[in-house]
Amino acid sequence: MDKLKVLIVDDSLVQRNHVIGLCHELAITQISTAENGQLALDQLRKNHFDLVFIDLEMPVMDGVELVRIIADEKLIESIIILSSKDPSLILSIGTMAESDGLSVVGTFQKPIKAADLSTSLKRLVSNFTNKKEDNPTTPLTINDLKTAIKNREITLHYQPKLTVKGLLLKGVEALARWQHPTRGFISPVEFIDAAERLDMISPLTEYLFDIALKQKAQWSAHGINFHLSFNLSPLSLTDKGLAENITQQVKHYKIAPKDIVLEITENAISGEISTAIETLAKLRLKGFNLAIDDYGTGFANAQQLSRVPATELKLDRILVDNVATNPQQKAILKSTVNLSKDLQLITVAEGVEYLEDFKYIYQLDVDLVQGYYFAKPMTAENLTLWLKKDLAKIRKELHLALNH
Ligand code: C2E
Ligand code: CA
Ligand code: CA
């Protein structure tokens, strides 16, 4: 932590000193302060910082305006929002900042507590390490993608989906991984986005679905039966031939469509959606399960949700992560779970990283969990080992934790 450079923006000297004290406890020593938004901007434009703490209520320029300018000018990536106001206001400014492209590592009511800050900093450090793995060089081209498919450089990892009650392995989600021979690890977000832009999403999806099905057939041959979740790009839903192609692929491997869950993001179903609904309806008629992914990040309303023939709702990490420490988030998560139940969808909580969050989820009527707390995405080989060794250990740990 000693390398982190932070800026604390707050008009109250007492509050600034409080945050400075907490930073010292966490071995952060490179600390600057500013009394208002304007002075903060002066510093941010001149110097590099890793993190800025922003108080919402300040004279001269309030925190909301400061967040907007920071996002517009891309002055910093990570922020923490503080306020003495209503938690729902703080959370909504946080959502605004995220949609403006900032990484909000914490939203807190003042005074911020040491444990909360420590959790946020862990998230900041993990953002850093994840980013380091990425190797942003020149933009990907059609040829890069074609070569990757031809040479089978892109592979799949699998992340377990477990029942909340009993921690039984219910399914796995296939997640694409690309280890490029010279560029190193390329994030799926980056290459899926490139494939969408370069009109390569159909061949890439077909290639990945084939790998997933082959793996599923192998598991079935060994008597291991759980469902397989596979991500579809929203763009694929505009492809009128998709439903038929996918059906042919599962037939080829003699896999029943009911053992496959196709995930589509919430954004695909908000806005102009008639072609998307048509494709989804066809897939559902053919027997596939459908999950609405990343729920909570987009703007689909309950009515749009009810028009999609989905079978599963995946609550995004933004609703789940850190829920135990945030009363407002608890309320939102709880009501979203209720909505999901009312629509008779299987509810999945994504991005569970902490035991405390799992304990809260356990109290709600959530069906399935997925997250680093249980397992990271892994190769098919490692999944077998995880099933043999780690799962029993996790069950035991949780049993103890829940009964204390
Ligand atoms: P997603 O579908 O929401 O997948 C879940 C992402 O959350 C995965 O990131 C997974 O590694 C990560 N994750 C799971 N549990 C945790 C947790 O506890 N904490 C944190 N911090 N993260 C967790 P990944 O693999 O980097 O994938 C990112 C996105 O890329 C996916 O988000 C999905 O939208 C897209 N993607 C990945 N593979 C494919 C694919 O084969 N096809 C398509 N169309 N999109 C894909
Ligand atoms: Ca997904
Ligand atoms: Ca998701």
Search tags:
404 residues, eight-stranded mixed beta barrel, 15 helices, single chain, binds ligand C2E, alpha/beta, binds calcium ion, five-stranded parallel β-sheet
Structure explained in plain terms:
The protein is globular. Helix 2 (37-46) packs parallel to helix 3, helix 8 runs parallel beside helix 9 (242-252) and helix 9 packs parallel to helix 10. The longest helix is centred in the C-terminal third of the chain and has 23 residues, at 380-402. It has 404 residues and is α/β, with parallel strands linked by helices. The strands form 2 sheets. It has an 8-stranded mixed barrel. It has helices at residues 13-25, 37-46, 63-72, 87-99, 114-133, 142-150, 188-197, 201-221, 242-252, 274-285, 302-307, 317-320, 327-342, 355-363, 380-402, and strands at 5-9, 30-34, 51-55, 78-83, 103-109, 154-163, 169-180, 184-186, 227-231, 260-265, 289-295, 312-315, 346-349, 368-369. Ligand C2E is lined by residues 159, 175-176, 187-189, 192, 208, 231-233, 263, 293-294, 317, 351-353, 370-372, 377. One calcium ion is lined by residues 293-294, 314, 316, 350.
Provide a short characterization of the protein structure:
This protein is an alpha/beta fold. The chain contains 15 helices and 14 strands.
Per the principal axes of the C-alpha atoms, what is the gross shape? globular
Helix-strand pattern:
EHEHEHEHEHHEEEHHEHEHEHEHHEHEH
Kindly estimate the percentage of residues that lie in beta strands according to DSSP: 15-25%
Strand order of the largest sheet: 6-7-9-10-11-12-13-14
Cα(first) to Cα(last) distance is 33 Å
Low-pLDDT windows of residues: none
Roughly how many Å is the radius of gyration?
Answer: 23 Å
* Class by alpha and beta content: alpha/beta
- Summarize model confidence as the mean pLDDT: 91
Bound molecules: ligand C2E, calcium ion
How many beta-strand elements?
Answer: 14
Report the total helices: 15
Largest sheet: 8 strands, mixed, barrel
